[in-house]
Amino acid sequence: MRLVVLAIVAIWVSLTPLARAQTGNSDRAIADKLPLFVKNNCEQRRDPANRLFCGDPELAAAAEKLSAAIEARLSRLPDRLPAIGENALWIRQRNLSCGIFGQDAVRYEDIDRVKACLLTETVERTAILRDPNFDCLAADTAAGAVICSDPALALAEAELNDEVLGLIKKLNETEARFAFAEYGRWTRQRDRKCNLVGKDNVPLEELSPSEACLADFLSRKTAEMVAAKGDPKRVFGRQIAARAPDTDAVDFCVARIHAANSCGDFVRINRVFEIDSEVADPQALVTAEVEMVVLAPFAACSRIASICTGTCWDPRSGNALPSSPAKDSFNVTRRLRIQRTFAFQKGDDGWRCKEDELAPVDYGVAGGGP
After folding, report:
1. Same domain flag for 176 and 212
2. Which residues span the domain enclosing 339?
3. Which residues contact 188 (CB under 8 A, 6 or more apart)?
4. Number of structural domains the chain divides into
5. Last residue within a domain, chosen from 136, 162, 187
6. What span, in angstroms and rounded, lies between the C-alpha atoms of 280 and 345?
7. From CA 286, how far away is CA 274, in angstroms rounded?
8. CA pseudo-torsion sign 83, 260, 273, 317
9. DSSP letter (8 states) at residue 263
10. Where does residue 253 rank: exposed (0-12), middle (13-18), buried (19+ CB within 10 A)?
11. Are residues 285 and 204 both part of a single domain?
């Protein structure tokens, strides 16, 4: 588990767009300002911000403290994927506020100013992440806003998180990956049931009718965790069938595919909803749209793209493509929407998905950034 966490932390600290290669003269100029530049082979780092963190001792020390704060935050969150997206967005905003613009290298005369800005931003971010209340303050969903606005709900969520993490820590790495994916599916199912999907920008007072539903979910899930009596396999890893071929069934299917292929390292399932269905017992076809958020760069035409998003992509146009020779990667926080028809088989216990990967898709579009 710790190796997984550290791998995610490493991704977080380094997530920014790739910089254009700098000339040898530029490297020597930067080395004059960065004492550790040569020793740490920082010229191998293509990202301008990462070069500064690599070559400056103060920035390197601050980055180490930030990594520890990120790991501590991860240990508090059963559903860690939203935090990855939030942190990646912070890195992009940090770079912009400090004068680092996409692929443009930092000019020699600006290095001292940019270093000072990065140090201030990193120290402040570390202090914020160490505050457990930040988990609430950073909530960017309708459900998160409602829960964090009500002390009783916030306490109930913290109790559920503790119970979930206590069980998942007893699983091996593969089992834990599936358990985290299952927890993410619970929250999506909760939001659908509590009528909170698509309401992230709705005023808080208009969300109050959902409070009772959220309280019921938190209470019921916590009781389920307690009833497991320390045995995580009484809660996680069970082959649960869907009651009907619908949105929940597709969510079961997509979450299983993502967990089986470690897709959570690269994309997060953000939303799933049914568009149409054709049912002829014991078979069913469900056409659904799945929205995902990019958490870490990956080649837009690659095995990861095919298995985890169902297609190759053209990042510039945002269109899905059957294949592409381009080696471009997606920037983090971009949103990918695919439409696909999923096949289901009905058994004695319910409906089970017959799909093992997301490819091929019927339709796809990427948005939310260059």
Report:
1. yes
2. 239-370
3. 251, 269, 271, 272
4. 3
5. 136
6. 10
7. 7
8. positive
9. G
10. buried
11. no
pTM: 0.72
Q: How far is it, in rounded angstroms, from Cα 182 to Cα 331? A: 26
What letter represents residue 228's amino acid? A
Six-digit token pair at 92?
């992009």
Q: Which of 195, 214, 238 is the last residue of a domain?
A: 238
Q: CB of 9 within 8 A of CB of 17?
A: no
Among 287, 309, 290, 288, CA closest to 298: 309
Interatomic CA distance for residues 187 and 243, integer angstroms: 18
Report whether 301 contacts 329 (CB < 8 A). no
- Residue 170 vs residues 231, 232, 233, 255: alpha-carbon distances, Å: 8, 7, 9, 21
Task: Specify whether 20 is located in the same domain as 111.
Answer: yes
Distance of CA 261 to the CA centre of its chain: 15
d(CA 205, CA 207): 5
Let me know: does 217 contact 194? Beta carbons within 8 Å.
yes
Same domain, 209 and 149: yes
Report d(CA 319, CA 367) in Å as an integer. Answer: 9
> Rounded to an integer, what distance in angstroms lies between the CA atom of residue 368 and that of residue 192?
23
Facing residues of 365 across strands?
319, 337
Identify whether residues 144 and 85 lie together within a single domain: no
Q: Answer whether 362's CB lies under 8 Å from 287's CB.
A: yes
Distance CA 108, CA 112 (A): 8
One digit per residue, the tens of pLDDT, for the chain of length 370 reads 433 333 444 444 443 333 333 444 455 677 888 999 999 988 888 788 999 999 999 999 999 999 998 888 877 777 666 777 777 778 888 999 999 987 688 888 999 999 999 999 999 999 888 876 666 656 678 998 899 889 899 889 989 988 999 999 999 999 998 998 999 999 999 999 999 998 988 888 999 999 999 999 999 999 999 999 999 999 998 777 899 999 999 999 999 999 999 998 899 899 999 999 999 989 999 999 999 988 888 899 999 999 999 999 988 888 998 876 667 888 777 899 999 999 999 999 999 999 999 999 999 999 875 5
